[in-house]
Amino acid sequence: MLTVFGIILAALVLFALEPVPIDITAIGVMVALMILGTEGPVNLTGITPRQGLSGFASAATITVLAMFVLSAGVQRTGVIQLLGKRLTALTGDSEGRQLGATIGAVGPISGFINNTAAVAILLPMVTEIAHEGRTSPSKLLLPLSYASMFGGTLTLIGTSTNILASEVAADLGVPGAPFSMFQFTALGIFVSVAGTAYLFTLGQYLTPERIEPRDDLTEEFDMGAYLTEVTVRGDSPIIGDTVRSALEESDFDVDVVQLIRGEEVFLEPLAPKSIQAGDIFAVRTDRDTLVELMDAEGLEMVAQTVEETDLEAAEDAAQNLVEVVVAPGSFLVGETLATTNFRQRYDATVLAFRRGPELIRQRMDHTRLRVGDTLLIQATADSIDRLADRQDFIIAQEVERPDFRRSKVPVAIGIVAGVVGVAALDLLPIVVSALLGSLLMVLTGCLKPTEVYESVQWDVVFLLAGVIPLGIAMETTGGADLIAEGIVMAAGSLSLVVVLGLMYVVTAVLTNIVSNNAAVVLMIPVAFEVATAIGASAYAFVLAVTFAASTAFMTPVGYQTNLFVYGPGGYRFTDYLRVGTPLQLLLAVVTTVGIVVLVGV
User: Membrane topology for this entry (predicted)?
Assistant: First the structure.
């Protein structure tokens, strides 16, 4: 038991600090449990290799994997973009209508495709709604994340947390588990209505305007002092050199954005082009570096800055400036632009990036990137399409994609409806119907076979597989019993309803610090033992833990969707505390009361 507690403590610290990605920590936990298990060198955890690897064979893990594929099939049809255009036309410049459209779109969608995927798909739409309506995107993106969590509570498949909780509860023998598709929908509606009311009232007042409504991206990223045009003098020593050898590989902190030669304007790829006298380059650099660059390379500054001339026109004409969010599981996480050869790989230039409220415009090449960082990228339309095709990135603006499979819209929606219907009628287990739906997405042409593997967030899959044995170890070593006894003793003579509320609060706090999936694996065995010890409904207590783990509002790291909007919204860490804490407390009461009314304790 002590060994398992030690592993849990180490895991919680690593989950919170993230010196390595959380999925790697989860795999490390799994390996540690097996090494110290019954068939290892010593027997300190009681976990056999079969138990340690059971997360990979878990129905929860496979179901979540299949849901990613189903979500991708819907996304590839472009149906969400069609919805976005309709909503943009309806919302106008009314912030209230924009907020209503955001919540009204993401809530129901999150109930039927994974809510993390729903936010990734809808983020460009919401950003476009804010832009067209002259509203700060900060006012809409945090509600987008929160509303997706409300929607995730509506069905079993709304979030990986629900699916995992269902299996863990079933393994413990909790009455009512495994959960059916709409088993807790009534409670989810209860929570969604209360949360939506908050976002329209106090939440709307507390949500800050971190990013001013913009006319263009150069203005939003405050690039005026960093984007300048320079011309090559006739006596310049770099005439005849390529752009790469003359500028990109120099010691100067400079990026070449575009080349103007006579009447022609060239975008990426610029690196192989030979430099000629009279060429005009748009460059990203600061003023001090610019002075050194002009002296060393024989350049002169053109009268106007790029912000005021060509780059703005290029953005309107060629859609060559976009915001790109680093997604969970991206190859960029923990790497730098230099080590990944980003410019050469995508023929794209990163002009700046935002990490929460911080704008970084200098020395970017050697800054290690994190999930949620928002890059301002200048590239050709083809390069942007390639970026949009990768699961490593979320394009934060609406990009017209010629490869959307519009004709497959009814097919994809029909497949998802079939998966939900078959599972709801209990004709097949959810894992089987989800796999069948994934297969049909490929057979009907909604997804190409090569796109299946790209659509899966493998970090989430490995996280689930890694933490599931931790719950088994908690139960088999008696750790869950010990914690439950401590909670029962501390609760003393408190009523069952208060103890139920405390279970919600404890789980919510834990979820905001570590992964929601780790929290549910750790807390469900404890909730089961607490309920058994005090003679309460085990199902009610498991439901409180499940809902608390599915709704983490107080930190950007508490839930993946919070990280998605962190950079695009320009939020500070304290914004999540300010807006999310009252909501977390409200839902602690609402969920507890809802369980008492709908389920009983």
Answer: Multi-pass membrane protein
